[in-house]
Amino acid sequence: MPVAVMAEGAGGFRRLLQQCETQELEAPGGIATPLVYGQLLALYLLHNDMNNARYLWKRIPPAIKSANAELGAVWSVGQRIWQRDFPGIYTTISAHEWSETIQPIMEALRDATRKRAFGLVSQAYTSIVADDFAAFVGLPVEEAVKGVLEQGWQADFSTRMVMPKKPGVLEASFNRFIPSSETAPVPPIPNEQQLARLTDYVAFLEN
Fold it and tell me: What is the pTM of this model?
């Protein structure tokens, strides 16, 4: 019986993952339905389990892949994750009109990716160009900056730089902008180099 009910929250998605895995194992002839394959693939991506996601993609019968465009769309998101292309993850998720059984997983994946990106930036940088930061977290610049100010980060409108709050370090000030009289941050790395450097840092953390 296909999984049709979505459960909210991490625990609910974990249970759904287990249900999908069981249904694939118990499927007649070892071939599950497109619904089960789609949810299972999306859930592996949500849990950042790229090994199981790749193995699943390889064993899905080609006929099912070709007849179900949404499966290919889910895997396109997986490819962006595999490439550590954070901006690409958001745009690929937004580009597809997901079914009601996949959409909640994709929304959770987008939010989890954004949270992970915030954490990585806070570890990798003392300052980053606001536009690059916004692309990395998949938000408009104003919204991205407002969000981090609420978390105790700092920003400078004149240089369009964001200064992350280091994990576990308490800041003396909260929700403030750096006055222009203070020492200016180190000149920014060119945009493409900056995103590439952050991607390399992600790879370093995961190895």
Answer: 0.75
